[in-house]
Every structure is written in structure tokens, then in C-alpha cells.
UniProtKB/TrEMBL annotation, chain A:
<dbReference type="InterPro" id="IPR000741">
    <property type="entry name" value="FBA_I"/>
</dbReference>
<dbReference type="Pfam" id="PF00274">
    <property type="entry name" value="Glycolytic"/>
</dbReference>
<protein>
    <recommendedName>
        <fullName>Fructose-bisphosphate aldolase</fullName>
        <ecNumber>4.1.2.13</ecNumber>
    </recommendedName>
</protein>
<dbReference type="GO" id="GO:0006096">
    <property type="term" value="P:glycolytic process"/>
</dbReference>
<comment type="similarity">
    <text>Belongs to the class I fructose-bisphosphate aldolase family.</text>
</comment>
<comment type="pathway">
    <text>Carbohydrate degradation; glycolysis; D-glyceraldehyde 3-phosphate and glycerone phosphate from D-glucose: step 4/4.</text>
</comment>
<keyword id="KW-0704">Schiff base</keyword>
<dbReference type="InterPro" id="IPR013785">
    <property type="entry name" value="Aldolase_TIM"/>
</dbReference>
<dbReference type="GO" id="GO:0004332">
    <property type="term" value="F:fructose-bisphosphate aldolase activity"/>
</dbReference>
From TrEMBL, chain B:
<dbReference type="InterPro" id="IPR013785">
    <property type="entry name" value="Aldolase_TIM"/>
</dbReference>
<keyword id="KW-0324">Glycolysis</keyword>
<keyword id="KW-0704">Schiff base</keyword>
<dbReference type="GO" id="GO:0004332">
    <property type="term" value="F:fructose-bisphosphate aldolase activity"/>
</dbReference>
<dbReference type="InterPro" id="IPR029768">
    <property type="entry name" value="Aldolase_I_AS"/>
</dbReference>
<comment type="similarity">
    <text>Belongs to the class I fructose-bisphosphate aldolase family.</text>
</comment>
<dbReference type="InterPro" id="IPR000741">
    <property type="entry name" value="FBA_I"/>
</dbReference>
<dbReference type="Pfam" id="PF00274">
    <property type="entry name" value="Glycolytic"/>
</dbReference>
<comment type="pathway">
    <text>Carbohydrate degradation; glycolysis; D-glyceraldehyde 3-phosphate and glycerone phosphate from D-glucose: step 4/4.</text>
</comment>
Amino acid sequence: MLRQSLEVVCKEDFRKIKIGKHQRSNECVFDCDVTRSACSYTTEGHHTIQICEHKTAIKVRAKVVSRNSCLIICILLNVKLRIARVNMPVFPQYLTPKQEEELRNIANAIVAPGKGILAADESTGSIGKRFAPINVENSEENRRRYRDLLFSTDKSLAENISGVIMFHETFYQKTKDGTPFTKVLQDKGIIPGIKVDKGVVPLAGTEDECTTQGLDGLSERCAQYKKDGAQFAKWRCVLKIQQYTPSYQAMLENANVLARYASICQQNGLVPIVEPEVLPDGEHDLETAQKVTEQVLAFTYKALADHHVYLEGTLLKPNMVTAGMSCTKKFSKEDNARATILALSRTVPPAVPGVTFLSGGQSEEDATQNLNLINAIKGPKPWALTFSFGRALQASVLKVWEGKDENVAKAQAELITRAKANGLAAVGKYQGGLDSAAGGQSLFVAQHAY
Amino acid sequence: MPSFPQYLTAEQENELRRIANAIVAPGKGILAADESTGTIGKRFASIGVENTEENRRCYRELLFTADASVAENISGVILFHETFYQKTKDGTPFVKILKDKGIISGIKVDKGVVPLAGTDGESTTQGLDSLSERCAQYKKDGADFAKWRCVLKIGAHTPTYQAMFENGNVLARYASICQQNGLVPIVEPEVLCDGDHDLETAQKVTEQVLAFTYKALADHHVFLEGTLLKPNMVTAGQSCPKKYTAEQNGKATVVALSRGVPAAVPGITFLSGGQSEEDSTLNLNAINNAPGPKPWALTFSFGRALQASVLKAWQGKKENVKAAQEQLLVRAKANGLAAMGKFQGGQSGKASGESLFVANHSY
């Protein structure tokens, strides 16, 4: 007797099988997935076989035939059995409605009117560059002391700061009395965020272009950060304007890696802030910056669409559109604001709840004024337009602090001043000139990497 | 720095922007009267009218000589090539008749769908050959906008990447050529309602198709502020056993658009597809009342849904012309209200409740 393992061979790609009431056994109607049943039959003829491995086994009458020394099972189509083909494309679930709601709520809270983000996620190397001009040693304790200063600021800070992005080390640091920073922030009603990328790496064969790494184990990392209090994440990609860049390759690659990051974040309950930064380095004019930004954003949102990213649960962190730092022609802030809105209106779907601009190399005052104008000028602007500033919120703070405990209160006052100014700018109501210690200084660092 | 050769001058941009905004002015929309010879024949057959050139001329004359008040709700008319060059009985070009009423003339420029080999019944649309010269001539002869229809189908494995990419690309080429010749391109990536798919599937497919469309437009440097979109409303398949309300359709439609259509696009002029006159108006009204970011105008570009009652009233008889024109005014007004979310319902016409579905519709 021949004993063989068999597979149920379906002629077509059935996704589901609908079974009608069997005349004799009165079995009920079910939908079930087709799975391959390994079963062994020794004889040809009619058999009843199980075609799915669910708890409720569905039995189907089948005919077993012998062909080429294999036994093949043919599902019988008879009057009582309807094998229905599901005639529509398959869209497996990406997020449940509950997950969507959670992400949507977090995103909306971050861009609530008059509020924005403090980007305090400088990596160890970057914060060292901030400490150097004020002669503060780049030690773990100093880094802890500095962020302690920021996060222990009076709770009125939360009127204008909705969220803080942190670097991994900072995320797990505590105040002097042992309270985790995340708790200090949460108690003020400020949402903790976490930078999850692992820095830029070169794209071989390009003119000094790069992509960003950090996808390995990202899902597990996000799950842990979420457990430990994070509600949003950030990932920065960098594109440069040179004679032949950004190239198609760089735009495609960076957009794709941003979409992968965004997808993984959302699966783990973190709102992804998508940051495709076009650097201001160069001599290009405003129009060029605008066109490149449009291109980059088009690639970005196509990639997000292709990866099914839930736009209502994301935020965008783009550059403001400005001419290159070494451009000989000067443009007004109104020109910049207009160019920025134009670029965004042509590429950022209205479903995105908010745009949280990076400040790049701009001085504190310029960044605020530019944000204000972006909000004040006319144009299609269905998203919130607010800030996610690093240098432009902290320059004065650092200058005043100088690493000394006795300056902490004054330094915190600077933070509140800048936060308030930018909060007003985020609703187009900044009157200008709120004095700060470093208000007018350009904070440009060439070829900036964090 | 990278090179961005000029696509349009500022003057050209201003002109296109002005035309597009005029078409989607509040309370106004488009009468799609661009049925090809074959297609209008099908409409005539149902009322026993012979498909002759004279009858086609008579019928469009009926439409375009309706009372001047029709321009309160009709901003533009899309015409087929033959119609574009026809005249009234007393020799006045249709284009002039419309212009005198303040209605903008548009022209269908595609040359119909053709099969994509190796796909499961998918298609692209042809018509790019000498399109630039044709557009220049139409512009000279009074057109200010154009229309090009692509078709995508929801099946077990469709629409495919190939079909979405190809149709997105051909729409972008068409749009680019139009704009170079001063015509506002209406971009129509229609997802057919044939099938038994549910509302959610229709929404997801529409999102995908729109993503491909706007990526292609971006890649071809199309000036979005000088374009219009003519999409399907998001509804479940015609044979879907589950029924949905106008409110559900409206919501699904706005979500799909908010995820796929940049705010720079001035307006969205929905096609009616196989919907009855009344359903089209109700759905348009629901779309305007749905919650969500809606930075574009949301109005109509209806063919069957503006003309079904007109045809029924006309029956091809001269003595019915006035009554038929009345029907047009009624539907135009209803849709004008719906375009502002203010339609109260029930303005019935002779054919208002009839489904106008034609399987696998091609013009």
C-alpha cells in the first residue's frame, strides 16, 4: 500500500473558502483560510478531508485521484459547496482603530496651539560642541546637570513646550534626588520623546551623500522606550544641495528608510517625527532650496504611502526654506516664509496634523521670526506650523549657565523666554525683539551632524 | 547647485491659477458634456433618438442655450472635439454661446483607453501624440481647460503597481503639455466602482492611486495650483452586499483625499460614475459636510448625474426643449448647493433616483 504525504492542491489562489450548508451533515457556513493539509491516503475515491487547522475543522468532500504516482486531492465543487473567490485586493491590517486613535491623540497634543518641541537630543559628541564654547567639560555628570536644568524649569514651561526629544543616555538619567527625567516631564504635562536613529552613514558612489542607520532591532527598542515613558520618536535624514545632489538615489533611499522607521514606530505606539532635512550649506538661491525641498518631500510622502504609514499619527520636521548660507543674494523673511508654505502646500498631505520646523543654523531670533511669518502669511496651511528647536531654544540658556549652579535660575528664565516667544510665533502672534542673551547670534555649523 | 530649468513663467502660472480658481468658485462646478460619439449614442438609444451629427448638435444646443442663470452653478463645460467646433442653428459657435454666459469651455483631449498587455484587464490611456499642437489650437479656439481620463479597476490582484505607475505617468505627461499651452489640466484617475469590494478597500485603493498620481505630477514639475483633480467618490463596489450611507462615503472620501492630495491643488471636481442624480448630489453634500482637513474646493464634474433627467424630458423632441432645460437648471442648482454642503435633499427630476451604472464603463 502506498502511503504518501499530500498537499491540497488548489488550482487558483483562493484566499478564503466559503462553505455552504452540507445537505446531510448540516454543517454551518464558515469562512476559513486555505492551509495545506498534509494527510495520507492510500486509495483513490471520495473522502472527507479537513482543509483547515482551525479549532472548528471544516470538512470537505474531496476526490482523491492517482496521477504520476502522486495522490492528488481535488476539492469537489457541488451544489452544496460554494468556493467563492474573494475578488478584491488584500490590505492586511496595519493598525487597529485603537492604535490609530492613540497615535492621533499624541500627535495632536504635540502640536496643540501655541506649543512646540524642545529638541534636547544632542548626542554625546554634539553636546560636547555646545559645552566647549562655555568651557564646560563633556562629562556624563555635566550632561545630566544640564538637562536637569532644562527639565526642572518652572512648570509654566509646559504652556509652550508640549514635548521634549531626548537622546538615549538622557532618557534614562535622573535628577539629583533620583527622579527619572521622564517622570519630571510627565508631571509637568510634557510628553517625552526619544531619538532612535544611529547617525548618518555614507552612500558609496555618491557625491558625499548619506543615509541614516538604526533599523536593526528598532522594534524591540521602540517597545522598550514606550514602556519606559516615550510617546514619540525622531529620526533625522540629511540631504545636501550641491551641483548634482540630492541625487535620485539619495532621495529614494532616505525616504525609504524614514518610512521603515515610521512604520516600526507606529507598530509600537510611538508617533514618528519624520525629519528629511535639506541642509542650508551652499550658495544656492531661495528658489533652488524650495524646489529641492519639494522634491525631497514628494519622495518622502510617496514612501510613507507605499509603507502604509498612518499619516494622522505622524509629524513632519522639515527645514524652513531658505537660500544657502553662502548665497550672495539676500532674501527677506517674507520671501522665506512664502517659499516654505509653497513647498509644503505642494507636498504635505492635509492628513498630517503638524509640521514642527527645525531651526538649523538660524539664530534664536531669526528662527522665531521666520516661524512667526510662516504662520502669518496667507496660503493653504491645513497643518499646525510649529517648532522643534534645539539650538534656537538653548543658545541663550547655555550662554547664561556657563556650567555654574548659581546661574541655573537665570538660565531657566532664558528658556522660558524663548519658549514663550516661539509659542507666540507658532500662532503668528510674535511681536519681535524678546531679548535673549544670544538672540541674534547665528548658530550655523557647517555640514552639521548631531 | 542643481539645475531647475523654467517650467512656466510667472505670467503663465497666474493665468492657469486664475482659470482653475474660477472653475471651482463657491457654488459652482462642471457640466461634463464630453461624451464621445459612441457613448452619446448609448444615451440616445435609451430615449429612441438616432445618433446623427445633427441630433448630437441639437442636444448640445439644448444644453448650452439654457437660461443664463445656469452660469450661477455651472462654471465650465467639458466638450468632445466634434462638439467643440459645432454651432447653434443660427451659426453661433457653442464656445461663444458659453463664453457669453460666463462659462469656461474645456476640451477632452485623451483618445480613449487601450489595454496593458500582460495584465488582468488593466488599461492605460492614449492621446499624447501631437498633444502640444492640439492643445495650442484648442486654446486659440477658446478652450481654457482640458480633461484626460485614466481608469483603474479593483480586482483580486489589481490595480497593479504597473497600472498605477503607468496611468500616473501618462496623466503627468498630459498635464505638463496642457500647462505649456495655457490649458488647466483636469487630472482624472478614476477607480471604477465595478465589483463587490467594501468601502474600506475602495478607500485604500483610492489612496494608493492618488499617491502614484501626485508623485508623478511632482516628478514632471506640474504646477499643482494650476490643475484640478477629478476623482471617483469613495464608495463600495456596485455589487457589494453591504450597504453604506452617504455620510460613510463622504467620510471615506475626505480621508482618502486628505492623505493623497496636496493642499496646493485648488479644487476637486468629483465624477459621478454610475450613481443616480440624487445619490451623486447627496454624496457630494455629505463630502462637504464630512469632518476633516479639506483645504481644496469640493465640487462636481458630472455627466450622467446632470443629464439623465434632461435626456428623459427631451426625448429628442423640439417641443420638449424648454422642459428639458428646466431639468438641467434644477440639477445644477442642487449640485451647486451640495458643493457648499447646503443641499436639503429631494429636488427630484424625471430620472433622479435611477442608477446610471454601466458595467466596465468606457466613454
